[in-house]
Amino acid sequence: xxxxxxxxxxxxxxxxxxxxxxxxxxxxxxxxxxxxxxxxxxxxxxxxxxxxxxxxxxxxxxxxxxxxxxxxxxxxxxxxxxxxxxxxxxxxxxxxxxxxxxxxxxxxxxxxxxxxxxxxxxxxxxxxxxxxxxxxxxxxxxxxxxxxxxxxxxxxxxxxxxxxxxxxxxxxxxxxxxxxxxxxxxxxxxxxxxxxxxxxxxxxxxxxxxxxxxxxxxxxxxxxxx
Length: 226
What we know:
Elements: H1 4-8, H2 15-32, H3 51-67, H4 77-86, H5 92-111, H6 118-135, H7 146-159, E1 165-169, E2 176-178, E3 188-192, H8 194-201, E4 213-215, H9 219-222
Parallel strand pairs: 1-3
Antiparallel strand pairs: 1-2, 3-4
Helix pairs in contact: 2-5, 2-6, 2-7, 3-4, 3-5, 3-6, 6-7, 7-8
GO molecular function, one term: isomerase activity
Keywords: Isomerase
Protein name: Maleylpyruvate isomerase family mycothiol-dependent enzyme
């Protein structure tokens, strides 16, 4: 018998690119309207990084995807620091331009990668939430891309065999199943909204999030980037 979870596990190759496009259309105008001083704001989710650091990291990662540049050690902390440093002489506008091109062009490449790069698209979307939070903008880790982000998160956690979790979301009709137990442990339970689930599953602060319930699993176990 086919279950809703089985249907959701069928990869939609267009979903990562769609998520990037949705976020591009919302984020880029926001960035172009900010003063240069705002790009020096610290990002709580990425200690030691400013808004500009996060954006330079994101634009570099997407450019690597578009140009198929994946040398050994790529996306390691050292590699990320080098990518950011390479853009030190750029203006903020140049970083935004590169980010916009990457968010436009990377989707087609990710679609052809058989799922290997889907997590990168989700990470870019999460970093956009980091920037919104640094700016004090509403809707961090939410917005029009949230449904695709949640579906992508659920599939990635199941493919990676992460800790099982059943999420009853305020902003979604059907429960969302994350992770895969293989019958070895009962699933945890989350009750709350989608952005808070995103925060928990990506290691973002939840102290300012709406009230939620988490049982049968520790928050640290949910972090896909941990």
